[in-house]
Amino acid sequence: MQTLYTLAFLADNEPVVFYVGHTNDVERRRREHFKNPLNPEHAEYDTYKYRWCRDLLAAGIEYTLTPILEIETEDDSEYEWILKFARDNEQRGIEFYDGYPLTNMKAGDFLEDLIKDTSIVTAHQIRHWRAERRAKEIRYEEDLGNAEQSAVAIELIDMLKQQGHDLRVQGYKEEVKKLKKDIREREMLNSPERAEFIKQQTIDLLKRELLEKTITWYEYDSEIKRMGGYPEWTETKPQLKY
User: Fold this and answer.
1) Tens digits of per-residue pLDDT, 214-236?
2) Domain count, the chain
3) Do residues 12 and 2 make contact, with C-beta atoms less than 8 angstroms apart?
4) Is 168 part of a structural domain of the chain?
5) Rounded alpha-carbon distances, angstroms, from residue 162 to 148, 155, 174, 215
6) Cα separation values, 87 from 70, 82, 94, 120, 217, Å
7) What is the span of the domain harbouring residue 105?
8) Interaxial angle between packed helices 192-211 and 123-188, expressed in degrees from 0 to 180 and rounded to the nearest 10
9) Is the torsion defined by CA of 51, 52, 55, 56 positive or negative?
10) In sequence order, what DSSP letters do the residues of 23-46 get, joined into one string?
11) FRET partner for 50 with CA separation of 20 to 30 A, picked from 93, 105, 147, 168?
12) What's the Rg (C-alpha) of the chain?
């Protein structure tokens, strides 16, 4: 069991709740709420609730801890009462740091959205609302994850395309090397017909390299001349604009 409690002060003889909490030891928590705000080393020293406690003490205004009721679970039951006091303060025009109606709240807190939806009151409704909100967040995270995966997939495809291009170009070069070797071997075996055929294939591969922009026109032209110049069955110079 947990005890739900409030921290409050008097304004015009009316209690103003500025914090709602829960504890399994009311007296221990009471001591902590009067001691911790004055301890700069405490982990919660700069929280809204303790900053407000110090502001009250500096102004000579006392605050009190008041038990409200026993609750089974501190989670949704506590939120139910936080909503109640936050809405009451809003109706009375009471606000604390950053315009929040309770010092429990902070930027990005789902309580801010809950307060706006006045149809949500009970712990059961809060539990249902939070479950729906979490489901939407999960769907959003999944959609975002899918989008990121798609982006990664596209990047991977582009990389594979580039790798394929590189491998294809490398394949051309290897074929050219083999053909050049074959030309020399055929020439050594006095087979001019075969050598001429191989030379034609080599020139075709060189053209493909030129089209793939893996060699320059100067390299292409130099290689053709090295093999004995342009044969009669080719154009004098291919009309390629590079």
Assistant:
1) 777 777 777 777 777 665 445 44
2) 1
3) no
4) no
5) 21, 11, 18, 17
6) 22, 8, 10, 11, 79
7) 2-120
8) 150
9) negative
10) ES-HHHHHHHHHHGGG-TTSTTTT
11) 93
12) 40
What span, in angstroms and rounded, lies between the C-alpha atoms of 119 and 128?
12
Output the CA torsion sign for 221, 224, 226, 231.
negative
Q: What is the token pair recorded at 168?
A: 């294809």
**What CATH number did the domain enclosing 52 receive?**
3.40.1440
Helix spans in the chain (H): 26-35, 48-58, 74-91, 110-116, 123-188, 192-211, 217-226
- What pLDDT, in 10s, does the model give residues 43-95? 999 999 999 999 999 999 999 999 998 887 656 678 888 889 999 999 999 99
Q: Is residue 236 part of a domain?
A: no
What are phi and psi for residue 118, nearest 5 degrees?
-70, -10
In a domain, 113, yes or no: yes
Cα–Cα dist 237/219, whole Å: 13
CA dihedral angle for residue 213, residue 217, residue 220, residue 226, rounded to 10 degrees: -160
